[in-house]
Design goal:
PP2C, 23 strands, [pyruvate dehydrogenase (acetyl-transferring)]-phosphatase activity, alpha+beta, disordered N terminus, 12 helices, PPM-type_phosphatase-like_dom, seven-stranded antiparallel sheet, Protein serine/threonine phosphatase 2C, PPM-type-like_dom_sf, 602 residues, globular
Length: 602
């Protein structure tokens, strides 16, 4: 039985969907407690397998599988990697095969429901129909079960929307709404995010005429790596560190009659100070406390955020000045969407991807570490770490003596053989300033690199513009649609409503590598609008859009294998506008997950 099914998989003609170079996954078998295919050839031979290509710009292929069952079989077997060794067993014969089609007066057994399965073989994956009601699964241990039955489009939508949030900002301060979503690939997800609105009295920051207070608004996304602890630490405290530095800077300016408000450079310096002070606490102050305690338990707790790492992207909006500051440490990205005179959107990157492959970062590192030709190798720091700015990542910041001491007394790894003059990685961000135009309907997209691997800046901005148009067509009446009143409709619906990229926009920006991996056609017709949450709308289209089979396949892949095809994704979309002022921030329930209540962040 098992051998027959394995042979069937090996002899099937498969058209690859996506290819990834690198180490192949281990061969694993998946079984169920009952037969799945249940229609055998009447001749007793292996059934034929006819590939049925899907009509899709993403070139996902599927093929039919009939699983051979025997009268005494206890289950059917699928290979996670079909080229592995098969188990010894009896070859099926016509007397062993069980057919569900009968001739003459014999009644035909009722057909079983057909579902979809996802099969992975030699760094390629395929979809196939299966029958029956038993899930296709693999038990990894007593506490975990990986279900490989392919998600239906409805289940894929549920997974996309599981972590979505949306807030309506009714404070009359230039921001009317922001949407958030997270879709994990790692388990647990290594991304994180944070948002906060701080009401600032005029004694700290000068308010607009006739107002006693102004708002400081913060949004941030964190792309963790080598674990989730650093990004979780940033979620809890980074905004507070930055706000404390801004408070000091604004108070000093308010006390000076010649200033009243701090200069743009002073605000930039305060944000940088907040970043670097927090990283110093994570990487260096933690070591001092651990060495004093001489406790492995304390070391495990306090050093975790230092041993893993995280990029950070923070946006700070001052409602009084209408200045938007974007601080980036790492390869997450911020892109501004703004309407042009012709009614289309323009996409303007407000950050630069900071990696070992970015020319400006390569130049900086070589100047800071002269005589070290391998400080950047193959686009990575010391040939290993890709982001050149990040929190944590202590193995690129601690001295060799510190690393040896931590390893000897507690735990750790051997220092990198190329380590000579650390630190090689910094948490100091690059800060950009943009004057926002709330009355014109600007919007800002913040996202970890999982999104930018799949969509370009122009596609992201055009998709948000397409989504806004759809919201208007559904009607701008009601409290949840009031924020749309100053937005407008677009003309040509066959294209995304966005201007093409400028020649200078590509500097410091990596192209979407997944479009090559998935063999995606560039036509905008592959996109769709199905979600009430703008961030979820972006992630759906990044993973396939109208191609529901592609979306389901990518979301079905289990961790850690899914990491070969998609990264953790965290997206925030912030809409600027002249909205009502009733001093509230409310949950937009129609665009938020309903599984658990979400608190408004004010």
């Amino acid at each position: 039985m098992r051998r027959a099914a394995f042979q069937a998989l090996r002899t099937a003609r498969r058209v690859p969907a996506w290819k990834v170079t690198g180490r192949k996954p281990c061969a694993v078998s998946f079984s169920s407690s009952r037969s799945l295919g249940l229609r055998a050839s009447s001749t007793g031979k292996h059934p034929s397998y006819l590939p049925a290509p899907l009509q899709s710009s993403m070139h996902l292929r599927n093929f039919s599988i009939a699983v051979i069952s025997t009268a005494v079989a206890s289950g059917a077997w699928y290979a996670y990697q079909g080229t592995g060794q098969t188990s010894a067993g009896l070859n099926p014969t016509s007397s062993q095969l069980r057919s569900y089609s009968t001739a003459g007066a014999q009644a035909e057994a009722p057909a079983e429901a057909t579902r979809r399965a996802l099969l992975v073989d030699n760094d390629q994956f395929f979809t196939a129909p299966i029958s029956g009601d038993q899930p296709l699964s693999k038990h990894t241990d007593d506490s975990d079960r990986r279900v490989l039955e392919m998600l239906t489009p409805e289940q894929a939508t549920q997974k996309l929307r599981k972590n979505e949030e949306s807030y309506l900002v009714n404070r009359g301060k230039g921001v009317v709404r922001y949407d958030i979503v997270q879709v994990p690939s790692n388990s647990p997800i290594e991304d994180d995010h944070a948002e906060k609105i701080i009401e600032v009295p005029s004694s700290v920051a000068a308010a607009n005429q006739g107002e006693s207070k102004s708002d400081w608004m913060f949004w941030a996304v964190f792309d963790g790596h080598s674990g989730w602890t650093t990004s979780a630490k940033l979620r809890n405290v980074l905004i507070s560190y930055v706000a404390r530095e801004l408070n000091t800077t604004y108070k000093a300016a308010a006390a000076d009659p010649s200033l009243l408000t701090p200069s743009s450079a002073a605000i930039d310096a305060a944000i940088k100070q907040g970043f670097t002070r927090l990283d110093d606490d994570i990487v260096h102050s933690s070591v001092d406390k651990v060495l004093k305690s001489n406790s492995r338990r304390v070391a495990a707790e306090m050093l975790a955020p230092a041993l893993s790492g995280s990029c950070a992207l923070l946006a700070f909006y001052d409602s009084q000045s209408k200045d938007l500051k974007v601080a980036c440490a790492g390869d997450s990205r911020a892109v501004l969407g703004r309407r042009a005179a012709n009614g289309k959107w323009t996409a303007t990157p407000l950050s630069e991807d900071q990696t070992g492959g970015t020319p400006s970062e390569m130049k900086r590192l070589r100047e800071e570490h002269p005589g070290e030709p391998n400080v950047v190798r193959n686009g990575r720091i010391l040939g290993q770490l890709e982001p050149s700015r990040s929190f944590g990542d202590a193995f690129y910041k601690w001295s060799k003596d510190t690393q040896d001491k931590i390893k000897r007394q507690f735990f750790g790894r051997t220092p990198h053989p190329l380590l000579k003059t650390p630190p090689y990685v910094t948490a100091e961000p690059i800060v950009t300033t943009t004057k926002m135009e709330p009355g014109s309907g600007d919007f800002l997209v913040l996202a970890t690199d999982g999104l930018w691997e799949m969509l370009s800046n122009e596609e992201v901005v055009g998709l948000v513009g397409q989504w806004v148009e759809q919201q208007q067509q559904l009607g701008a009446s009601g409290s949840n649609k009031a924020w749309l009143k100053s937005w407008f409709s677009f003309g040509n619906k066959s294209e995304l409503p966005v201007e093409g990229p400028k020649a200078t926009d590509a500097e410091g920006q990596r192209r979407p590598i997944r479009q090559q991996q998935y063999d995606i056609a560039g036509a905008a017709t592959r996109f769709t609008v199905e979600d009430q949450n703008a961030a979820t709308h972006l992630v759906r289209n990044a993973m396939g859009g109208k191609d529901k089979e592609m979306v389901s396949a990518l979301l079905t892949l289990p961790s850690p294998y899914s990491r070969r095809y998609r990264d953790d994704v965290t997206v925030e979309v912030i809409f600027f506008g002249e909205g009502p002022d009733n001093r509230t921030v409310t949950i937009n329930e129609e665009a938020s997950a309903s599984e658990e209540s979400v608190k408004a962040k004010l």
